[in-house]
Automatic annotation (TrEMBL):
It is an enzyme of class 5 (isomerase). It is found in: Cytoplasm. This is phosphomannomutase. GO terms for cellular component: cytosol. The active site is at D8 (nucleophile), D10 (proton donor/acceptor). Alpha-D-mannose 1-phosphate binds at R124, S175, D177. Its main location: cytoplasm. Mg(2+) binds at D8, D10, D208. Its EC number is 5.4.2.8. Keywords: Cytoplasm, Hydrolase, Isomerase, Magnesium, Metal-binding, Plasmid. Pathway: Nucleotide-sugar biosynthesis; GDP-alpha-D-mannose biosynthesis; alpha-D-mannose 1-phosphate from D-fructose 6-phosphate: step 2/2. SUPFAM superfamilies: HAD-like (SSF56784). Its cofactor is Mg(2+).
Amino acid sequence: MKRLIAFDLDGTLAESKQPIDQATAELLAELLDLLRVAVISGGDWPQFETQVVSRLPRKANLRQLFIMPTTGTKLYRFDAGWQVVYADVFSQEERSRILDALTRAADESGLRETQIWGERVEDRGSQITFSGLGQLAPLDAKTAWDPDFAKRKRLQAALRTTLHDLSVNIGGSTSIDITRQGIDKAYGMRKLAEHAGVPFAEMLFLGDAIYPGGNDNPVREAGIDTIAVRDVAETRTAISAIIACLRPSQANGRGDPVP
């Protein structure tokens, strides 16, 4: 029986770097009335605040919500305001080494772009992210930039030769995420299980990259039940189905979690 539903963010709950739409926000608020909800992604807290938290209706039960930035290396909970539960951040020495390696590897991989939107490298404390077209690139440009993953795989290979003691993973549609070794969404979900007191068997995860090499796939490999979605519309359909399963059990007075 499921007591917690977790979601990837970009491509699952929202388009890349875009706020969740009103329909999704209302569904999440309904879901928060029924069980615990977590959102995990590579972005930092400001991105979650803009894309998710600020879009939820006032009625949403925020105490049921777990926000997990930077692939779960940070956790935020609501208690008279949003509070940091933990944050596993890089040292200054680690940060400097990563930034130097990124600059060299991007040049060596031929990833000098004539047009970018915003900064290409973002220091998120516990994760440093390279975005090929910049953090503010429009969705259509991001979608067309590296559809076959070839550019990011080339950069990933170059970085792994110099940052062999760190984890270098393909993130969103144009990004590479660098974290400490062993950091992926399975790591984040293990931290969530610890802090929420909910075992993997009682969790369900929805993501758009649950396939070999996808950044949601470690969650499936860790043994958590997953639902692969193609886009935001399919996520809304899945949430609606979960709510429909939960509502009758509550109406019957049993309060059973979703099977």
